[in-house]
């Protein structure tokens, strides 16, 4: 099995130049040539940022709603009460609850991908912070998942919101759609994502903000991108 994978990967490597920095147009134009899996592969962007996230003023974290969506089915849970719970249900939330949902989480039953909470419920959510935090699904105002506008938050996450957060090494990685998307949809999503990263540039970041970037598919090698072109996407 390993030989088959290696052979497939070697064939894909022939379709790219690892020494080259591709323009955005070149990389997007070549991405569909790298499709090799039997499933609808995710288009993945990875960026190396010129920030030191150990310092609070250089943390890069936020969200963006991709114009063409992510191509994934996202299960959304909401912790709210009374009319806010009703709004969440009306907006299409998969799970809505309060104390009962907290008990489900404590029992290890996490049947959702995104958790949204109203601000007044965050004291309750704090009880399961140690469970949600490591999984990356703790509600946070910076990603729009702590809000009184639960209907909009549900719609955004159902409709293609991508949350991003720089890791300790200054890297950000995200899926921006599926290879089955049209060329126009892929470009729109790519540009929306890069623009969102640029909008979150910390004032404390000096020099070139995006040091490097790559574009790839789930099962493909990556293409190196021209970083100045990424920086110029505002």
From TrEMBL:
Family annotation (InterPro entries): Ribosom_uL1_bac-type, Ribosomal_uL1, Ribosomal_uL1-like, Ribosomal_uL1/biogenesis, Ribosomal_uL1_3-a/b-sand, Ribosomal_uL1_CS
Biological process according to GO: regulation of translation; translation
Residues forming coiled coils: none
GO cellular component: a single term: cytosolic large ribosomal subunit
Keyword Amino-acid biosynthesis: no
GO MF annotation, one: tRNA binding
Highest taxon listed in the record's lineage: Bacteria
Family matches, as CDD domains: Ribosomal_L1
PROSITE patterns assigned: RIBOSOMAL_L1
The keyword Nucleotide-binding is annotated on this UniProt entry: no
NCBIfam families: rplA_bact (TIGR01169)
Subunit structure: Part of the 50S ribosomal subunit.
Protein name per its UniProtKB record: Large ribosomal subunit protein uL1
